[in-house]
Amino acid sequence: MAEEGNKLTLRRLEAPIHKFIKVALPTDLERLQKHHNNILKYQQSQQWDRLHQEHINASRTVQQLRANIREMEKLCSRVRPEDAEALEALVKPVRNRASTAAQDFLLMHSKPAPQPTSAAPPASHPPSCPTADHVGGDQLSDRQIQLHLPEIPADQSAAESWETLEEDLKELSGLVTEFSLLVHTQQEKIDSIEDNVNTAAANVEEGTKSLGK
Which residues contact 196 (CB under 8 A, 6 or more apart)? Predict the structure, then answer.
């Protein structure tokens, strides 16, 4: 009961929540998209050192994004259950963007194309492979590029830095899911309260009828 007493209206917390959903998180997501584009470019052109550095930079951005989502989650957990539906409408767009960004990154190495044999020169492959110029806003084209990415050689630092980035992305994806459950749990609480109130009201009405008889 004490915990419920510490809850605040969404109106009281809307300003600080807006700082996250309108400024902090969109900035992190835009930066992450730039890393995504650079990683596609460097891996496709097999610039392993630059790819390694981009993996490191992307990991830092993901960690910053996670930190901001945690802070926003703390704020949202202070919103009273009665405002859960409005809170969900407020945070859902940026939460979905974060989830999509993480999944797009994780798809990058879901089915890497095998590295060309040493006898075949790398120059024979680019004409048949899509380039970043073909990506545009088409998700299918982006997916095709990812499937044609050359595999990172195991002896390159980029292979290790990708594993670190992959773990960071998985944690980000899990955090977004956890945040979604938090908001839904608040909505379920108020739904349960409403059901109990409706049941009690129905019982009172039934009892009144019985007394009248």
Answer: none
